[in-house]
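Re: the 210-residue chain
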Amino acid sequence: MRDSEKQYPRQRVSQRRSTDMPYRDQWEAEIDVILPTLPENRLPTTTIGGVIGGLLAVLLTVVVTLMNAPLYQEAARLSDSMSYTTASTIFGLTCLTDFLALLICFFTGFLVAKRVVQRLQGFFAGILVGAITYIGNSVVLYIPGYPGHIAHAASTAPAINGLLAMLVFLLAYALIGGLIALWGASTATRKHPYYLAKAEQEEATTTAEA
């Protein structure tokens, strides 16, 4: 895996601007900044990273759930009459799996950005992680014998309302995953030459326009 701190082939970006200055003739300000080029095959790397991250998040959720299967079975049996301790434990496990999923989103964005540099690709990878996490965790609930199995979901709510609710949650998971991954990508490329050069270019442009 290529490290993001390596010097990639560079391209020259020039910008010229004419302006009037007091007591002087018109002059040209030239901004000459060298931008490292981005690695190739960014999309496949982003897609693979997002899919792996999403599957890992689903796998961790399934493992945690199966390790606590008796607890979930007791909660299903007691339903509304379950004890406060049982409800608190299940809530804690839910928070744990959600935290692990967010952690996976962060490191997916971090690792993808380390490889492809571009932060936006880290955001896209996080969207994949979030979407796959939601879809995977929803699908396993329909497996017979799985803790929390949904047997009569179709009869409890109209199909259209159920689909709309699933779509809203899917978009929410994807957006949250993308934002967390973007945070990881920004952390990974904070000192990368590509973004340092872009900051230098923006600063030079601002100075020339002042």
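Residues 1-5, 11-31, 153-157 have pLDDT under 50 and may be disordered.
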